[in-house]
Specification:
By secondary structure, this protein is of the alpha+beta class. It is 31% helix and 27% strand. Strand 2 and strand 3 form a beta hairpin. Helix 1 packs antiparallel against helix 11 and helix 5 packs across helix 6. The relative contact order is 0.16.
């Protein structure tokens, strides 16, 4: 009886191959919508910040959690260097330059005022050493040397800074230099600073290897470095980012921190004193961590379900999440997140591992809070005459073994 069943299966294979038989996946959707908005933009100055301008955003989504005069055009001072560092990191991560590349110092770079490590024209430092000096002690001479190394001149580098600002939607910004020393028409806003900080931290997270350094040294220990951002030492979860101050700009700070998967960016401009910018940034970050949480909705590679495959050498494939996903939620919100899965119509072999076969949307209070693609965990070959012959051969071998 068992042998008869095997023979019947053998003759059914070609019928399956050349027939229109298919598993129906059209309309394979479920929808458990419920839920409302995750976070509303907080306006006004109910935190009573003593600063000319400020903003707090969630790092991954860019959602504004608090703002005060956030589009006012102000002098950024050395917070300018967030954009300079962003362009350096882009060059590094694209392979255009390497951390070990030697960077020369020009007369122009060595003559910079303000914060510096006193480069001279006879020395070179590696890109990594330059980056460390820029991130930790806000070295003007090093950022100019890097600008010239990357673009040929500071002027050309500044042009690239403004192009990147336009690309990021930084409509309040005009850069005149790469370091932040006061010049006419060198302006930005707290909102725009949060945009470039978000781009830097989300696209180039390895920058925190430098922005979180508290103390270090260069030149074989001869040049001591201590971070100008005191929150690196005093604030739990601090990941950076950049200070800036001049007599005209007063005291500015872009501060970032992560706790329990929630990443926040706070920007304070025109603080009256250095201590005031730190205390006001801390007040913003504390407000964010006290009132919001980050809820993970998917993990890359996790199995969701199995779906049928038409005309494949196997009848189904596992679907897994393509990427991590998550959402910002208020601590007072109902945490009952619902999901809605939509599959492609007519999922048919051949399928490659990683092919997008559907999508999941997650909802809180009936508002979509995140979305992630569903992909094939493994490849599925299409049944052909050749692999059908192979399957039949394997069947006969196993039958009489």
């Amino acid at each position: 009886m068992q042998t008869l069943k095997k023979i019947i299966v053998m003759f059914l294979i070609p019928i399956f191959l050349f027939s229109p038989l298919a598993f129906c996946t059209e309309g394979y959707v479920w929808d458990d919508s419920t839920i409302e908005t995750t976070a509303e933009e907080a306006t006004g100055n109910f935190l009573n910040l003593e600063a000319g301008s400020a903003i707090l955003i969630e790092q991954n989504s860019g959602k504004v959690l608090y703002e005060h005069n956030c589009h006012e055009q102000l002098r950024p001072a050395s917070v300018t260097k967030v954009m300079s560092i962003l362009l350096i990191m882009e060059a590094l991560d694209s392979g255009k330059i390497a951390l070990t590349d030697q960077v020369p110092c020009s007369e122009n770079a060595s003559n910079m005022g303000g914060s510096q490590i006193w480069l001279n024209e006879t020395e070179t430092l590696t890109v990594e050493e330059m980056l460390k000096a820029i991130c930790v002690v806000s070295a003007n001479d090093c950022v100019v040397a890097m600008a010239e190394f990357l673009a040929g001149s500071e002027e050309m580098f500044v042009q690239k800074m403004n192009e990147k600002a336009k690309e990021l939607g930084m409509n309040d910004t005009n850069f005149v230099n790469c370091h932040g020393i006061d010049e006419d028409n060198h302006v930005t806003s707290a909102y725009d600073i949060s945009l470039m900080a978000k781009e830097l931290l989300t696209k180039h997270p390895s920058v925190t290897n430098y922005t979180t350094i508290w103390m270090d040294s260069l030149r074989g220990g001869q040049s001591e470095l201590t971070n100008t951002n005191k929150l690196v030492r005093t604030y739990e979860g601090c990941t950076g980012l950049k200070t800036g101050s001049t007599s005209l700009a007063l005291y500015n700070l872009a501060a970032s921190a992560t706790r329990n998967d929630l990443s926040l960016i706070a920007v304070v401009m025109r603080g009256a004193t250095s201590e005031k910018r730190f205390s006001e940034a801390k007040k913003l970050l504390d407000y964010g961590f006290a009132n919001y949480a980050y809820t993970k909705t998917s993990t890359a590679g996790d199995f969701l379900q199995e779906v049928p495959v038409e005309k494949g050498t196997v009848g189904s494939v596992n679907l897994v999440y393509e990427t991590d996903s998550g959402a910002l939620v208020k601590n007072t919100d109902n945490k009952d997140i619902q999901s809605s899965v939509t599959l492609n119509e007519n999922i048919t072999a051949p399928i490659q591992a990683g092919d997008v076969l559907g999508n999941v949307k997650f909802y809180l209070n009936e508002e979509e809070i995140s979305s992630v693609n569903l992909v094939a965990q493994t490849a599925v070959d299409k049944v052909t005459v050749m692999n059908l012959f192979s399957m039949i051969t394997e069947f006969w071998v196993n039958l009489f073994r």
